């Protein structure tokens, strides 16, 4: 095995030297003394084009029918059409060729006593059967995810069709999820599949790279950037230069969040005490991109201040706040310094500033304090149990003056 690997390595090196020499002689023969190319631009590009239509595999420039690879590191891209690059070799456990071989133009040449596409299997195993199986168990304790067999601590995934769709350290990856239902191609032929997820080539998007985008990633990002410099205002996702907002009505109509860059949030027009109401701007105005345009006679961020009120908006709000930073403790509507607790007619929310919310004392049967709402019963209960919450007692006594007691 070692001798075969050595021979393959030597042959590979000789082949690359020969290709380089042929490239050099070809380039000289195709150029005249003045440095001009003997062949037409069309013929030059045809010689540099790969079977998939790319010039120099998209990794170099074509000069007179010869590919000049864009090499940033020695050995990164090479070959007649820049088709070889070391990092495309199979990996195992995150390591190229399993760290037990060398990569040559997309193929692993394994070290002695190792084999497999990623050099992940040992020919001679010194591990016990138990140790070997333990090394093959996934996070759930299943050997090779029930999709392969264990060989010397490494999983050999079952791929009877030869397509290699089952992969991963524990055979946990099923790349059949990347197959396009119509064409049967992996990621529609426009991307790479890694553990069941498609990573699309530039200009393509979608779960299986089925949609083409004719603009660059930079242009897409520019179109999705909101005036405050955020992608889709941090309220959506950018796909091919268009924002898909997180809150869209299933019918396709606008949801609470909309706009070209999801810059409009209509939830800002809802009152704090009734976030789920269909009424925007307290029913007294029009919500435009998160701002209330109030009807005549009304003012305020939520159109909740009547201009006929003798109090200023600031004075009215101050009276409604009480000891809270929220108007009416966030449980009611403030009108001219007076709180109307929400929902109207529900006596569980009460107090001058709606500071009492007896709903917090309800049990599963919607009974307040288990039905023991009288003060003396509450005190008896605390005396008997000895361990009742002081907070519950304090809440009850603070708001008890607003209840009628027998």
From TrEMBL:
Residues spanning the signal sequence: 1-24
GO BP annotations listed: cell adhesion mediated by integrin; cell migration; cell-cell adhesion; cell-matrix adhesion; integrin-mediated signaling pathway
PROSITE patterns in UniProt: I_EGF_1 (PS00243), I_EGF_2 (PS52047)
Pfam families listed in its UniProt record: EGF_2, EGF_integrin, EGF_Teneurin
InterPro entries the record matches: EGF_extracell, EGF_integrin_2, Integrin_bsu, Integrin_I-EGF_CS
Primary subcellular site in the record, as a coarse category: membrane
Cellular localisation: Membrane; Secreted
Domain Integrin beta epidermal growth factor-like: 47-83, 132-172, 316-355
Ranges of residues in domain Epidermal growth factor-like: 183-209, 278-303
Cellular component annotations (GO), alphabetically ordered: cell surface; extracellular region; focal adhesion; integrin complex
A molecular-function term among this protein's GO annotations: integrin binding
Keywords annotated in UniProt: Disulfide bond, EGF-like domain, Glycoprotein, Integrin, Membrane, Repeat, Secreted, Signal, Transmembrane, Transmembrane helix
Topology with respect to the bilayer: Single-pass type I membrane protein
Family that this chain belongs to: Belongs to the integrin beta chain family.
PANTHER family named among the record's database cross-references: INTEGRIN BETA SUBUNIT (PTHR10082), INTEGRIN BETA-LIKE PROTEIN 1 (PTHR10082:SF3)
Protein name: Integrin beta-like protein 1
Organism: Sinocyclocheilus rhinocerous
Protein's gene: itgbl1
């Amino acid at each position: 095995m070692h001798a075969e690997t050595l021979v393959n390595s030597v042959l590979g090196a000789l082949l690359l030297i020969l290709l380089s020499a042929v490239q050099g002689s070809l380039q000289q023969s195709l150029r005249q003394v003045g440095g001009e190319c003997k062949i037409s631009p069309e013929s030059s590009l045809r010689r540099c084009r790969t079977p998939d239509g790319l010039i120099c595999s998209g990794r170099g420039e074509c000069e007179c029918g010869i590919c000049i690879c864009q090499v940033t590191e020695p050995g990164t891209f090479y070959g007649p059409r820049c088709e070889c690059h070391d990092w495309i070799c199979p990996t195992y456990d995150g390591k190229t060729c399993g760290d037990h071989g060398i990569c040559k133009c997309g193929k692993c040449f394994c070290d002695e006593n190792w084999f497999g596409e990623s050099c992940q299997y040992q020919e001679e195993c010194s591990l016990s059967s138990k140790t070997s199986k333990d090394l093959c168990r996934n996070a759930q304790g299943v050997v090779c995810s029930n999709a392969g067999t264990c060989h010397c601590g490494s999983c050999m995934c079952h791929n009877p069709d030869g397509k290699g769709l089952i992969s991963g350290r524990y055979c946990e990856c099923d790349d059949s999820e990347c197959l396009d239902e119509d064409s049967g191609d992996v990621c529609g032929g426009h991307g790479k599949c890694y553990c069941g997820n498609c990573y699309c080539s530039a200009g393509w998007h979608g779960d299986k790279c089925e949609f083409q985008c004719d603009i660059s990633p930079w242009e897409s990002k520019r179109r999705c950037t909101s005036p405050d410099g955020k992608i889709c205002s941090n309220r959506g996702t950018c796909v091919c230069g268009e924002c898909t907002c997180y809150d869209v009505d299933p019918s396709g109509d606008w949801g609470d969040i909309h706009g070209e860059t999801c810059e409009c949030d209509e939830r800002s027009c809802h009152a704090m005490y009734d976030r789920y109401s269909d009424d925007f701007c307290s029913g007294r105005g029009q919500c435009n991109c998160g701002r209330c345009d109030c009807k005549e006679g009304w003012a305020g961020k939520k159109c909740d201040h009547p201009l006929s009120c003798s109090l200023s908006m600031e004075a009215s709000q101050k009276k409604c706040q009480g000891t809270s930073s929220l108007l009416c403790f966030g449980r009611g509507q403030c009108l001219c310094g007076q709180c109307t607790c929400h929902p109207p007619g529900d006596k569980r929310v009460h107090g001058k500033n709606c500071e009492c919310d007896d709903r917090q004392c309800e049990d599963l049967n919607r009974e307040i304090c288990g039905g023991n709402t009288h003060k003396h019963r509450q005190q008896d209960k605390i005396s008997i149990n000895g361990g009742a919450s002081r907070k519950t007692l304090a809440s009850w006594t603070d708001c008890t003056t607003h209840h009628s007691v027998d």
